[in-house]
Every structure is written in C-alpha cells, then in structure tokens.
Known about the structure:
It contains three helices and no strands. The protein is mainly alpha-helical. The longest helix is centred in the middle third of the chain and has 38 residues, at about 25-65. The radius of gyration is 26 Å and the shape is elongated. The protein starts with a helix and ends in a 5-residue tail after the last helix.
Amino acid sequence: MEDAVTTIANIDLSPVTTALTSSITPAQIIGLLASIVGFGLPFVLMWFGVRKVIKIFKSAVMKGKITV
C-alpha cells in the first residue's frame, strides 16, 4: 500500500499544468461563466414568475380575491 502512495506522490504533473495554463485563458473562463449566467438567468426569472402566478391563482380560488 505504501508503494502505491509513494508512486502517486512522485508523479510529476508539471507538463499537464503547463499545458492547461497555456491553453485556457482567464478571458475564456470569464466568457464561459458569463454564458452560463446568461443561459440560466431566464430560467431563474421564469421560476419566480411561475411561483407568483400560482400564488395569484391560489389566492383567487381560495379567498375570492385577485391580487398582483
């Protein structure tokens, strides 16, 4: 078991980290995060809108009042 641990501890990952840092730029990471937020924001707003509509409908049925 100790041999496996020392073998894993002695692996040199510098070529992998060099390749990753040279191929991925901070601008690409920011662009990816911006696209994720831009894609997810309509779904979040839709979620709150649907909840509001359901609340208005329940209130109209249960209390007989329509509120906005």
